[in-house]
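Q: What would this chain look like folded?
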Amino acid sequence: MSARLTVHFSGVPAAHLAAVSGLTPVATPAGDSAADACALFGLSGPDLPLAAITYTHDFSTSPPAWCARLDPVCLMPSGATLRLIELTQTPLSEADARELFDRVSEAGVIPGVQWRFGAPQRWYVESTDTPDVRTCPPDSLPGGDVAAGQPRGTHAPRWQGWLNELQMLLFDAAPNLAREARDLPPANGLWLWGGGMTPVLPPAPFDTVWTDQALIGGLARLAGCAPQAAPESVTEWLDALPAGHALLGLAADAAAPERAAHWLDALQAALDGGRLEAITLHAGGARFHLQRRSLLARLRRGLRRRALR
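A: My prediction, written as structure tokens:
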């Protein structure tokens, strides 16, 4: 029996995957990458509790109460606006992140919360209260405009005041001064987002899940499926792929043109060779289907490649 495979690219726009793959989406993009990942596990709706999901991945257990992400970011003045710059391209080291985390978490600025360090770019606060505060993910801000994503809700002004206080503690922190000296963006801001309670999910619609992505990993755990680490070698992994429906969650760097070509060639070969029954790709809320090529199309492709050598 062959296997079916769903591949989800986190944080990759649909137009980018269409460009690098030459594929046309079979459905108009609906929602963003995170909403699409949640939909794969039967979770939808506004204000998704993304923090509780990634928390489940980071700590291998769900949060005991309301929790939100409070991630370190760079806030950069740009003309009359303030721009948010995520630190994914210039990440904090583990040591720097922990020093900054300790500085803000031990200051006692936000009363009644429990701070948790999930990863250098994933910090959490837990609260036994459920504040009325609605937020935006940092990657959803148009042009990174901070003003477009300010917290809303009854308790938003109170949280905004706490965030301002915490950010003052980051301004002259040693790791930030060292980063600025190396021309790196400082982690001088904190971004509150993804707050909520742990969602209850139906059983996972996948037999196996491979991923290093916190959102996919958390969704899999909440749906009763223990995720395995994303493979380093796609060819060896495909050779050993068990029967059933598998989900592979990949990071945005897997969609870089050279890496994407490597992945897509290997997937296409597995599909053409009958090792995979079907392959669906997800990116930016859109779906793409890889189609099995005819023998003639494969021969033509092989001849074109030999001609280019």
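The chain has ten helices and ten strands.
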